[in-house]
């Protein structure tokens, strides 16, 4: 049996990668046994094949090169980084999927929003509507029940870092709830988020020689959302298991810039 521990998988360059001129995307295996594994998906890698981007291998395609029967228990958006659960057989898939359906899995996300947050902790219970033609959705009276708890983690002059704990799993739920509150996630242009630039937070900002040759590069050019931790019951176990994912490198760098110029 092939072991996944401490191995990395490299995919084909995506359009996002080409535009950023970065190395090929990789995903990291954080935990693995004979029934399932947990991986750290980078932003820019899709969870499943996308017919609109045939040149990029998805997370599922890469995993199935070694595990043909592997199935993703849940998914993350293209631009969201962090934890994804993968089942290796039907019984494990059923076991883990039921925990999502019964809302017994505890999930935590890290998000950056623009502006001041006036609460320390708040729970939003607002229905989320169906996906619209352009891939958007919104809070709707006839939407599906959606509940998210938000906890202020850290405040900066122009930004706030939040811990997000969704108890339901609607598409774009965290993004929609924050946008509806007037706190769209940083760089989430689909739901009203602003692209962050150093010139917006640094006093007496002066363009470098390189920047004078073209437009200023953003501090972050993807949705500032990261799947941080999962608490669940693995197949065949009698005790809950919690796993945490290291914060994505681009979010770490963004935090460092905020600490330096926006404290």
Report on this structure.
The protein is α+β, with helices and mostly antiparallel strands. The protein has two domains: 1-102, Pseudouridine synthase (2-Layer Sandwich), CATH 3.30.2350; 103-231 and 246-263, 2-Layer Sandwich (Pseudouridine synthase). The protein has helices at residues 15-20, 59-63, 90-101, 173-180, 198-201, 209-212, 249-261, and strands at residues 8-10, 26-32, 36-41, 71-72, 81-87, 106-114, 121-125, 147-155, 159-166, 225-232, 241-244. Strands 1, 2, 3, 4, 5, 6, 7, 8, 9, 10 and 11 form an eleven-stranded mixed beta sheet that branches. A hairpin with an 8-residue loop joins strand 10 and strand 11. The protein starts with 7 loop residues before the first strand and ends with a helix. Residues 1-24 have low confidence and may be disordered.
Topology:
Layout: E1 8-10, H1 15-20, E2 26-32, E3 36-41, H2 59-63, E4 71-72, E5 81-87, H3 90-101, E6 106-114, E7 121-125, E8 147-155, E9 159-166, H4 173-180, H5 198-201, H6 209-212, E10 225-232, E11 241-244, H7 249-261
Parallel strand pairs: 5-10
Antiparallel strand pairs: 1-2, 2-3, 3-5, 4-5, 6-9, 6-10, 7-8, 8-9, 10-11
Quick recap:
The relative contact order is 0.15. The chain has two domains: 1-102, Pseudouridine synthase (2-Layer Sandwich); 103-231 and 246-263, Pseudouridine synthase, CATH 3.30.2350.
Helix content: 10-25%
State the shape. Answer: globular
Overall average pLDDT: 87
Instruction: Look at the structure and give the CATH class of the largest domain.
Output: Alpha Beta
- CATH superfamily of the largest domain, please? Pseudouridine synthase
Number of strands: 11
Count of spatially separate domains: 2
Distance between the termini: 50 Å
Per DSSP, the total helix count is 7
SSE string, helix = H, strand = E?
A: EHEEHEEHEEEEHHHEEH
Q: Kindly report the CATH topology of the largest domain.
A: Pseudouridine synthase
CATH architectural name of the largest domain: 2-Layer Sandwich
For the largest beta-sheet, the strand count, sense and barrel status come to:
11 strands, mixed
Low-confidence stretches: 1-24
Structure class:
alpha+beta
């Amino acid at each position: 049996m092939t072991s996944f521990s401490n191995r990395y998988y490299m995919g084909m360059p995506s359009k996002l990668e080409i535009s950023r001129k970065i190395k090929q995307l990789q995903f990291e295996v954080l935990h693995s046994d004979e029934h399932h594994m947990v991986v750290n998906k980078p932003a820019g890698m899709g969870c499943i094949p996308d017919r609109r981007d045939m040149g990029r291998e998805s997370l599922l395609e890469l995993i199935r090169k070694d595990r043909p029967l592997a199935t993703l228990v849940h998914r993350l958006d293209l631009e969201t980084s962090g934890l994804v659960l993968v089942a290796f057989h039907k019984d494990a898939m059923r076991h883990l999927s039921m925990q999502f359906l019964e809302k017994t899995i505890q999930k935590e996300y890290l998000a950056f929003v623009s502006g001041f947050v006036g609460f320390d902790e708040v729970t939003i219970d607002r229905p989320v509507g169906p996906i619209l033609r352009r891939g958007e959705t919104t809070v709707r009276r006839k939407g599906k029940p959606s509940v998210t708890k938000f906890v202020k983690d850290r405040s900066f002059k122009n930004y706030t870092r939040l811990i997000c704990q969704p108890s339901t799993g609607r598409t774009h739920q965290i993004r929609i709830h924050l946008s509806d509150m007037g706190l769209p996630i940083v760089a989430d242009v689909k739901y009203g988020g602003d692209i962050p630039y150093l010139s917006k937070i640094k006093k007496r900002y002066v363009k470098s020689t390189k920047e004078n040759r073209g437009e200023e590069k953003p501090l972050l050019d993807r949705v500032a959302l990261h799947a941080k931790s999962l608490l669940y019951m693995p197949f065949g176990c009698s005790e809950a298991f919690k796993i945490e994912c290291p914060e994505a490198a681009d979010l770490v760098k963004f935090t460092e810039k905020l600490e330096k110029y926006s404290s």
